[in-house]
Amino acid sequence: MTALRQCRMTDLLHMSLCNLDPLTENYDVQFYIEYMARWPSLFTVAENSDGQIIGYIMGKVEEDPAYLSFSENYLPWHGHVTALTVAPQYRRLGIAKLLTDAFERACDNQNAWFVDLFVRASNDRAITMYRKMGYSVFRRVVDYYSDSPTSKSAGEDAFDMRKPMKRDKKRKHIRENGEERRINPEEIYHG
Q1: What's the pTM?
Q2: Helix-, strand-, coil-residue percentages of the chain, each rounded to 5
Q3: Strand bridging mode 53-62 / 114-120
Q4: Coil/strand/helix, residue 2
Q5: pLDDT tens across 20-55, in order?
Q6: Whose CA is closest to 79, among 164, 174, 169, 176?
């Protein structure tokens, strides 16, 4: 049986089962603490019946500053998945979907237009999983990741995948053929 709950400070000492994976981004402790402090309802862990952390999702709600509203890359109020990971031995059991559904409900409660996330363009399993959950590629961010765990190249592209929330009834924050829309990382505001 899997249980979801809000992440606690002591959980940071028990996430290594989830983070030991070349496709999982790892952050310093301060980064995790910032997310717990600023967006506690958007940092959720999954536990197995023994209380072991077997997955987590962390993210935020945000929007770009108003002075960027003229830009075609402007992002209105939205949820952003910063990290979603499930321990390898617990994958393909629906845990990522449970975590993502909880995150999306929290973003809907905060009236977000959409939820977005970045995924490595080579991570076919994750891309397929997100598509099944209703996400589509909005754009390709060229050389977003500074390393490439699956090849010898210096960097790797990211797909910015999005799913509209209830607020976006006209689905104006998604597009077809987003894989073909290329932007550079510096075109994205990182407040």
Answers
A1: 0.88
A2: 30, 30, 40
A3: unpaired
A4: coil
A5: 777 677 788 899 999 999 999 999 999 999 999 999
A6: 164
